[in-house]
Design a protein that fits this description.
Helix content is 41%, strand content 13%. It is of the alpha+beta class and 323 residues long.
Length: 323
């Protein structure tokens, strides 16, 4: 018999806050933006609700959307409610290291296959034609994240950030294809089902989560974001050794090759897209640092997102300037 609803914080502080809700019988997940240091369009739970509601009609695994509330007077911010998806969230290096090599390899392969499947979705057919402007994605991303840098960027790194932005603008390629893009795709933004060990039980991606950066755009940029997050500097953003930065997972060339083999688009202008991805992550890191400082949480973690800003800006610059 259902009882009073209780809530427990699952994750919070760096992106949207995530709570597990239960009435003792059923379980749901509530997502809502952080209460301090929010930057424009960076925590769009309404966007999450729209895209996941539409993707229920496809082969891309998502949590079933239940409700969207945009009335901030209820809990102090908008929120979404989705059904709870059984499985595991592999966030940390330690959690990944609990798995044997075969399972890790299979998960990486399934992850790449899932991204390729997302990029094959006919977004017109599922009602997402107006979800975003599909063309000129890289130009819009560069403008957006450069604008974010103006809000949250570190003064000492401003010359390097603006040099990277200038070089990206000068090297802008023509976009050949468009698709739904997740914008933040990696293993810790999924729920995985490791199977039961019984015959026919398979390791799989049970749900892709954290869709607040999703839109229509260039699928190559989405692959590049997944790959750019493989750098160890990701640990500085997460605040601890992360699963996705583990050396046990495929390196960037292998992930790119696996994506193309899974039926993804040809990865043209790859260096440009990798550099843009590194730049975007640098600005994301600066935004996280901005929110941490706004919330007064300095000095509480061994790792600092501010340290990641320089690392990713330097990666972007090296990628743009190498022969």
């Amino acid at each position: 018999m259902a009882g009073p609803i209780s809530a427990r914080l699952i994750t919070g502080g760096r992106s949207n806050l995530t709570f597990l809700l239960t009435d003792g019988t059923r379980r749901w997940v509530l997502r809502t933006p952080p209460r301090a240091g929010r930057t424009p369009s960076a925590h769009d739970v309404a966007r999450e609700f729209r895209v996941t509601s539409s993707l229920l009609r496809t082969d891309v695994p998502v949590a079933r959307a239940v409700a969207l509330c945009t009335d901030e007077s209820l809990i102090g911010a908008p929120f979404t409610l989705v059904e709870f998806v059984p499985g595991r969230s592999i966030q940390t290096r330690a959690e990944l290291d609990e798995l044997d090599d075969e399972v890790v390899s299979t998960l990486a392969d399934r992850l790449v296959q899932t991204l390729a499947a997302l990029h094959k979705v006919d977004y017109h057919a599922i009602g997402l034609s107006e979800f975003g402007r599909p063309d000129a994605y890289a130009q819009r991303q560069l403008k957006r994240w450069s604008g974010q840098w103006d809000i949250v960027g570190a003064d000492a790194l401003d010359p390097l950030a603006r040099e990277v932005s200038r070089r990206l603008a000068a090297a802008m390629p023509e976009q050949k294809t468009s698709s739904i893009v997740h914008g933040d795709f990696r293993i810790d933004n999924t729920i995985v089902d490791l199977g039961t060990g019984s015959p026919g039980s398979q390791t799989r991606i049970a749900a892709v989560v954290d869709w607040e950066l999703s839109t229509l755009g260039d699928p190559i940029a989405d692959v590049a974001m997944m790959c750019a997050y493989r750098d160890p500097a990701l640990d500085l953003i997460l605040g601890a050794p992360g699963a996705w930065s583990s050396p046990r997972l495929p390196d960037v060339p292998t992930l790119a090759a696996q994506y193309e083999a899974a039926g993804g688009v040809a990865l043209a202008h790859w260096d440009f897209h990798m550099a843009l991805a590194y730049y975007k992550i640098a600005v994301v890191s600066a935004g996280i640092d901005h929110r941490v400082r706004a919330a007064g949480e300095l000095g509480q973690a061994q790792y600092s997102p501010r340290d990641a800003v320089q690392s990713y800006l330097e990666l972007a610059h090296r990628t743009l300037t190498r022969p």
